[in-house]
Amino acid sequence: MTVRNIAQAINDALDLALAKDSDVVVMGEDVGRTGGVFRVTDGLRDRYGADRVIDSPVAESGIVGVGFGMAVGGLKPVLELQFMGFSYPAYDQVVNHVARIRNRSRHRFSAPLVIRIPYGGGIGAAEHHSESMEAIYTHVPGLKVVVPATPYDAKGMLLAAIEDPDPVIFLEPIRLYRAVKEEVPEGWLTQPLGEARVEREGEDVTLITWGAMTKETREAAVLLEENGISAEVIDLRSLVPLDIETLTESVQRTGRAVIVHEAPRTGGFGAEVAALLQENCLFDLAAPIRRVTGWDTVFPLKRSEHHYLPGAARIAAAATQVMEV
Amino acid sequence: MFQILTPSGALNQESPLEVEMIRRLYRAMVFARTYDRKGTALQKQGRLATYAPFEGQEAAQVGSAAALDPDDWMAATYRDGAAMWMQGYPLELLLAGRTGDERGGSPPVHVPVLPPSITVGGHMVHAVGLGWAAKLRGESRIAITYFGDGATSEGDFHEAMNFAAVFSVPCVFFCQNNGWAISLPREEQTRSETIAQKAIAYGMPGVQIDGNDLLAVYQTTKEAIERARGGEGPTLIEAVTYRLGPHTTADDPGRYRAEGLTEEWRRRDPLERVRLFLSEREVWSQSWQQQIEKEAAEEVDLAIERAEGMSPLGPGEIFDAMFESLPPHLARQRAEATQQ
């Protein structure tokens, strides 16, 4: 066991995958010489060579489109798009090709690739560097979309994504890269995609979240406990496929749900979760489902981002209101 | 512009192919034209969804694909049925795709041809990835991609050309400059004097050829393939040809181009010059022509029969190729869709 943060856990997973399978390649902007802008791929080029840890030209559509061809051609590319706000040029390739090839060829061809995308705000980054637009990926049929929030999950889910025969969008919460540390077992381990994680058990209200917001939500649960409210915290980990059973079971028990995400509210993935919960357990609800989210505004720049991001106080206040219904 | 066989059927230089091979490729072009005309006819009868004819481009497609090895990758478009068929893609599946059936996108396992790209330009980067994968896996196969003059304005053309050149990927970029991108003439597509010259900026060879000359197409593509296979990287070929028909069966070229121009290109028909060449060598006859046209018609008719004979996908089957195995939410939707 070694104590690792999320960036180190991902590096460990990539290292293992590159060592195990000569068809695995890593490609993206600056992933080689500098080890990526977040140093997630640090040292891999030295170990596996520039043919397998590929510094690509600055061309996101090319990274995904070429990676798609590589995947169809027998490789297992792990692609990095530097920031979610830079992933949009590649969106055509993701939607029209990556997500569709298995269906449009009726299983004759497939694209078993992983697209790693650092996402989210809270580090005072430049414009376009703080986006949380997971819903543009969850809405696309043919993709799996996952968001680890712990080092163990980052490692286990990345290895599961690499093993997966279908394309996986792997979102990495920028703010948590080095903010969370835990002991992560050595060697190959996989955490199946599609299973939610109960971060904290509770009885009065279910707080549902993913990615960077797990930290704020956990802190909100502590605040609530001080006020005598027992909050269950569930980290979805996987948006598609979604573990609706774990959510439904929890909300049936607590009768209350608050969904927390940093993405804009309208059309956010929280709306899907809320819709599914009311389909599954409306009559178990003691109060309307609440959402605590980023606003439907452009993500503010450094000096104002605290106005935008949900924090523990806002989450706790919403949960308290839900308890008062 | 590089040319070997003139429109009158004379050779400018030595032929890269034996007469018997030229005769076989002529037969293939007759098959392609038969297929193409039947495609348009079937659409008019409402039996195919929109069809994009390639009449006039047979030499470009047949001549280039004839230079490939059987396991070379191909990423082509909705107008490249002849090239795809040459590389082993069954006619019945090309037609099945056009009837509106996803199984048309599923060639047999030994056929290394992607289903035709419908979006313009996005598939060129795929060929780069396919060629690159072959290189990294130590395979000797290369990749070829087909696209039109319009696609060269897409950003993905730039990204594909750039990636291929930077990493010396074994890939051939085969542009059929057919003069028109739906209604936009080549002159308004790019200010570049030729499309081939765009290669210079990427650091790869670019060559402009007479795309209606089977022999020039074959020889140029063969050389580009050999360069790629030999580790010397990609090549851009601009085959200058002409789309004699409409963009698709949903299009009316009378709205944007003069009939006279099309007639002029008909006189440069890619089949006719090969026929003249063969006739000169007394290996073409009217009766042989009739025989191969009959064989082509029968084969295409059989392919149509097979394509139309496929029973449509059921409501559950539209779910079954989304993932290797169905995730729970799709399994639930599948059950909902199949509930009677």
Q: What would you note in describing this structure?
A:
The complex is a heterodimer of chains A (325) and B (340). Chain A is an alpha/beta fold. Chain A has helices at residues 6-20, 44-48, 60-72, 91-98, 101-104, 135-138, 151-163, 213-226, 244-254, 269-281, 305-308, 312-324, and strands at residues 2-5, 24-28, 53-55, 76-80, 114-119, 144-146, 168-173, 181-184, 197-200, 205-209, 231-235, 238-240, 257-264, 290-294. Chain A contains twelve helices and 14 strands. In chain A, the strands form three sheets. Chain A has a seven-stranded mixed β-sheet with strand order 3-2-4-5-7-6-12, with helices on both faces. A five-stranded mixed β-sheet of chain A has the order 9-11-10-13-14, sandwiched between helices. In chain A, strands 1-8 form a two-stranded antiparallel sheet. In chain A, helix 8 (213-226) links the parallel strand 10 and strand 11 (231-235). In chain A, helix 1 runs parallel beside helix 7 (151-163). Chain A is globular and about 60 Å long. Chain A starts with a strand and ends with a helix. The model of chain A has no long low-confidence stretch (mean pLDDT 97). Chain B is α/β, with parallel strands linked by helices and 340 residues long. Chain B has two domains: 19-309, 3-Layer(aba) Sandwich (Rossmann fold); 315-340, no CATH class. Helix content of chain B is 45%, strand content 9%. Chain B has 13 helices and seven strands. Chain B has helices at 19-44, 58-65, 81-86, 91-99, 124-136, 155-166, 186-189, 198-202, 214-229, 259-266, 270-280, 286-309, 328-338, and strands spanning 73-75, 143-148, 171-177, 180-181, 184-185, 206-210, 235-240. The longest helix of chain B has 26 residues, at 19-44. Chain B is globular. The interface between A and B is large, with 46 and 43 residues.
